[in-house]
Amino acid sequence: MDTNTKLAKMNMAVHGLDGDIVQGNSFYDDKHELLGKCDFVMANPPFNVDGVDKSKDSVKNDPRLPFGLPKNDNANYLWIQYFYSYLNEKSTCHLSPHFRRSFYRMDSSPFNTLR
Cβ distance 37 to 90 under 8 Å? Predict the structure, then answer.
């Protein structure tokens, strides 16, 4: 088990939470298969990651990218699409408070409210 996985599990335990933390690379493998299954998403991803290999079939054909493969080199728009794709029909997504943005999905209308 790598250090990040251990830290994530420790963080969950310290806060009295239970979760399924698994080691992997979210850009190339969706370990949890959450498409359309979430009522809400709360996340603090590592924004501005560079070097995601967009030539891999697992990225090019990823069903978590409903708006297509972003043209920019950082992973910000990948993360946002992942979160959006996990939401069910009546759900809400809030990004990290450090990002200071929230988007909500209401009535199946993407980005109906953007603050």
Answer: no
Q: Evaluate if residue 93 carries a pLDDT over 50.
A: yes
Q: How far is CA 39 from CA 42, 57, 59, 88, in A?
A: 10, 29, 25, 6
- Tens of pLDDT, residue by residue over 22-44, are 888 889 988 988 999 988 887 77
| Structure confidence at residue 96 (pLDDT) | 55
Distance CA 105, CA 102 (A): 10
* pLDDT mean across residues, the chain: 80
Pairing of strands 38-42, 87-94: parallel
The answer to whether 94 and 42 are in contact (CB under 8 A) is: yes
Write down the number of H helices and E strands in the chain: 3, 4
Sign for the CA dihedral angle at 36, 76, 60, 43 comes to: negative
